[in-house]
Protein backbone atom coordinates (compact mmCIF):
# COMPACT_ATOMS: atom_id res chain seq x y z
CA UNK A 1 0.00 0.00 0.00
CA UNK A 2 1.51 3.33 -1.05
CA UNK A 3 0.90 6.29 1.22
CA UNK A 4 0.99 8.86 -1.53
CA UNK A 5 -1.17 11.95 -1.31
CA UNK A 6 -4.25 12.50 -3.39
CA UNK A 7 -5.92 15.78 -4.22
CA UNK A 8 -8.90 14.86 -2.03
CA UNK A 9 -6.91 14.06 1.12
CA UNK A 10 -4.20 16.72 1.29
CA UNK A 11 -5.27 20.24 2.23
CA UNK A 12 -3.88 23.35 0.60
CA UNK A 13 -2.29 24.27 3.94
CA UNK A 14 0.33 21.58 3.29
CA UNK A 15 1.09 22.78 -0.23
CA UNK A 16 1.94 26.30 0.95
CA UNK A 17 5.06 24.95 2.68
CA UNK A 18 6.44 23.19 -0.38
CA UNK A 19 8.96 24.80 -2.67
CA UNK A 20 7.97 25.14 -6.35
CA UNK A 21 10.30 22.28 -7.35
CA UNK A 22 9.15 19.97 -4.53
CA UNK A 23 6.57 17.24 -4.90
CA UNK A 24 4.70 15.53 -2.10
CA UNK A 25 5.53 11.86 -1.85
CA UNK A 26 3.85 10.90 1.43
CA UNK A 27 1.42 12.89 3.55
CA UNK A 28 -0.17 11.43 6.68
CA UNK A 29 -2.04 12.79 9.66
CA UNK A 30 -0.78 11.78 13.10
CA UNK A 31 -2.32 8.62 14.56
CA UNK A 32 -5.53 9.26 16.57
CA UNK A 33 -3.83 7.66 19.60
CA UNK A 34 -2.37 11.11 20.28
CA UNK A 35 -5.86 11.98 21.56
CA UNK A 36 -6.04 9.07 23.99
CA UNK A 37 -4.57 10.96 27.00
CA UNK A 38 -6.94 13.93 26.72
CA UNK A 39 -9.88 11.56 26.12
CA UNK A 40 -9.06 9.65 29.31
CA UNK A 41 -8.95 12.97 31.19
CA UNK A 42 -12.41 13.96 29.93
CA UNK A 43 -14.00 10.56 30.51
CA UNK A 44 -12.33 10.11 33.90
CA UNK A 45 -13.14 13.65 34.94
CA UNK A 46 -16.87 13.24 34.36
CA UNK A 47 -17.51 10.65 37.12
CA UNK A 48 -15.05 12.50 39.34
CA UNK A 49 -17.00 15.73 38.86
CA UNK A 50 -20.30 13.94 39.58
CA UNK A 51 -18.85 12.42 42.75
CA UNK A 52 -17.36 15.70 43.96
CA UNK A 53 -20.64 17.61 43.52
CA UNK A 54 -22.60 15.08 45.59
CA UNK A 55 -20.08 14.20 48.32
CA UNK A 56 -18.19 17.42 49.08
CA UNK A 57 -19.06 20.95 50.01
CA UNK A 58 -17.21 22.36 47.00
CA UNK A 59 -19.43 24.51 44.86
CA UNK A 60 -20.83 22.56 41.88
CA UNK A 61 -20.05 25.56 39.67
CA UNK A 62 -16.32 25.21 40.46
CA UNK A 63 -16.33 21.43 39.90
CA UNK A 64 -18.20 21.62 36.61
CA UNK A 65 -16.15 24.64 35.54
CA UNK A 66 -12.97 22.61 36.05
CA UNK A 67 -14.44 19.72 34.04
CA UNK A 68 -15.46 22.17 31.29
CA UNK A 69 -11.84 23.35 31.10
CA UNK A 70 -10.73 19.74 30.66
CA UNK A 71 -13.35 19.31 27.93
CA UNK A 72 -12.11 22.47 26.18
CA UNK A 73 -8.55 21.14 26.37
CA UNK A 74 -9.71 17.90 24.72
CA UNK A 75 -11.54 19.78 21.97
CA UNK A 76 -8.45 21.91 21.35
CA UNK A 77 -6.35 18.74 21.01
CA UNK A 78 -8.86 17.32 18.51
CA UNK A 79 -8.75 20.54 16.49
CA UNK A 80 -4.93 20.51 16.54
CA UNK A 81 -4.88 16.86 15.41
CA UNK A 82 -6.98 17.68 12.36
CA UNK A 83 -4.36 20.17 11.08
CA UNK A 84 -1.19 18.25 12.00
CA UNK A 85 0.57 16.47 9.14
CA UNK A 86 3.80 14.58 8.53
CA UNK A 87 4.91 15.27 4.97
CA UNK A 88 7.70 13.71 2.97
CA UNK A 89 8.54 15.46 -0.25
CA UNK A 90 11.16 14.47 -2.78
CA UNK A 91 13.62 16.78 -0.94
CA UNK A 92 12.75 16.85 2.77
CA UNK A 93 10.69 15.62 5.69
CA UNK A 94 8.51 18.04 7.62
CA UNK A 95 5.88 18.20 10.32
CA UNK A 96 3.22 20.87 10.08
CA UNK A 97 1.24 21.59 13.23
CA UNK A 98 -0.69 24.29 15.01
CA UNK A 99 -4.14 25.83 14.82
CA UNK A 100 -3.51 29.57 15.07
CA UNK A 101 0.27 29.68 15.27
CA UNK A 102 1.77 27.24 12.75
CA UNK A 103 4.99 25.38 13.46
CA UNK A 104 6.83 23.71 10.62
CA UNK A 105 9.86 21.51 11.37
CA UNK A 106 11.96 20.21 8.51
CA UNK A 107 14.95 18.03 7.75
CA UNK A 108 16.41 17.77 4.26
CA UNK A 109 16.52 14.16 3.09
CA UNK A 110 20.09 14.62 1.89
CA UNK A 111 21.30 15.43 5.42
CA UNK A 112 19.78 12.37 7.08
CA UNK A 113 22.48 9.92 8.11
CA UNK A 114 20.33 7.49 10.06
CA UNK A 115 16.67 6.54 10.15
CA UNK A 116 15.00 4.38 12.77
CA UNK A 117 11.65 3.84 14.39
CA UNK A 118 10.37 2.73 17.78
CA UNK A 119 7.12 1.09 18.75
CA UNK A 120 6.04 0.77 22.34
CA UNK A 121 3.68 -2.00 23.44
CA UNK A 122 0.64 0.32 23.22
CA UNK A 123 1.95 1.48 19.84
CA UNK A 124 2.11 -2.10 18.60
CA UNK A 125 -1.39 -2.80 19.86
CA UNK A 126 -2.98 0.31 18.37
CA UNK A 127 -0.74 0.84 15.32
CA UNK A 128 1.54 3.85 15.83
CA UNK A 129 5.23 4.50 16.38
CA UNK A 130 7.96 7.12 16.52
CA UNK A 131 10.17 7.81 13.51
CA UNK A 132 13.63 9.17 14.25
CA UNK A 133 15.81 10.72 11.55
CA UNK A 134 19.30 11.79 12.54
CA UNK A 135 21.69 14.19 10.89
CA UNK A 136 24.87 15.78 12.20
CA UNK A 137 23.69 18.03 15.03
CA UNK A 138 19.97 17.35 14.48
CA UNK A 139 17.41 14.78 15.60
CA UNK A 140 14.03 14.78 13.90
CA UNK A 141 11.39 12.95 15.97
CA UNK A 142 7.91 12.29 14.64
CA UNK A 143 5.75 10.75 17.36
CA UNK A 144 2.41 9.03 16.82
CA UNK A 145 3.05 8.21 13.18
CA UNK A 146 0.65 5.73 11.65
CA UNK A 147 2.10 2.80 9.65
CA UNK A 148 5.59 3.25 11.15
CA UNK A 149 7.14 0.22 9.41
CA UNK A 150 5.80 1.24 6.03
CA UNK A 151 6.83 4.88 6.46
CA UNK A 152 10.29 3.73 7.55
CA UNK A 153 10.67 1.59 4.43
CA UNK A 154 9.36 4.29 2.10
CA UNK A 155 11.66 6.97 3.55
CA UNK A 156 14.64 4.65 3.67
CA UNK A 157 14.06 3.77 0.01
CA UNK A 158 14.20 7.49 -0.79
CA UNK A 159 17.47 7.87 1.14
CA UNK A 160 19.29 5.07 -0.66
CA UNK A 161 21.09 5.92 -3.89
CA UNK A 162 19.59 4.14 -6.88
CA UNK A 163 22.33 4.92 -9.37
CA UNK A 164 23.22 1.68 -11.11
CA UNK A 165 23.14 -2.06 -10.95
CA UNK A 166 23.93 -3.79 -7.69
CA UNK A 167 27.54 -4.84 -7.22
CA UNK A 168 27.99 -8.59 -7.30
CA UNK A 169 30.61 -10.14 -5.08
CA UNK A 170 33.28 -11.50 -7.47
CA UNK A 171 34.47 -14.27 -5.12
CA UNK A 172 31.16 -15.43 -3.61
CA UNK A 173 30.26 -17.71 -6.53
CA UNK A 174 26.59 -16.93 -5.99
CA UNK A 175 26.53 -18.04 -2.35
CA UNK A 176 26.57 -14.59 -0.74
CA UNK A 177 29.47 -15.52 1.53
CA UNK A 178 33.15 -14.96 0.88
CA UNK A 179 35.33 -18.06 1.20
CA UNK A 180 37.96 -17.72 3.94
CA UNK A 181 40.88 -18.40 1.63
CA UNK A 182 39.90 -15.97 -1.14
CA UNK A 183 41.47 -12.58 -1.77
CA UNK A 184 39.16 -9.68 -2.58
CA UNK A 185 40.05 -7.55 -5.63
CA UNK A 186 42.33 -4.69 -4.73
CA UNK A 187 43.59 -6.44 -1.58
CA UNK A 188 47.03 -7.91 -1.24
CA UNK A 189 47.62 -11.33 0.27
CA UNK A 190 49.57 -10.99 3.54
CA UNK A 191 53.16 -12.09 3.11
CA UNK A 192 54.40 -14.82 5.35
Topology:
Layout: H1 12-15, E1 24-29, H2 36-55, H3 60-82, E2 85-89, E3 92-97, E4 103-108, E5 114-118, H4 121-126, E6 128-135, E7 138-146, H5 148-159
Antiparallel strand pairs: 1-2, 2-3, 3-4, 5-6, 6-7
Helix pairs in contact: 2-3
Give structural notes:
This protein is an alpha+beta fold. It has 5 helices and 7 strands, in the order H-E-H-H-E-E-E-E-H-E-E-H. It has a 4-stranded antiparallel sheet with strand order 1-2-3-4. A 3-stranded antiparallel sheet has the order 5-6-7. Strand 3 (92-97) and strand 4 (103-108) form a beta hairpin. Helix 2 packs antiparallel against helix 3 (60-82).
Order of helices and strands: HEHHEEEEHEEH
Give me the number of helical elements.
5
Count all strands and give the number.
Answer: 7
State the separation between the terminal residues, measured CA to CA. Answer: 57 Å
Task: Tell me the strand percentage band.
Answer: 15-25%
What's the gyration radius in Å?
25 Å
- Structural class, please? alpha+beta
Low-confidence stretches: 175-180, 182-190
What's the story with the biggest beta sheet? 4 strands, antiparallel
Tags for this model:
disordered C terminus, three-stranded antiparallel β-sheet, 7 strands, four-stranded antiparallel β-sheet, 5 helices, alpha+beta, 192 residues, 34% helix, single chain
Outline:
The protein has helices spanning 12-15, 36-55, 60-82, 121-126, 148-159; strands spanning 24-29, 85-89, 92-97, 103-108, 114-118, 128-135, 138-146.
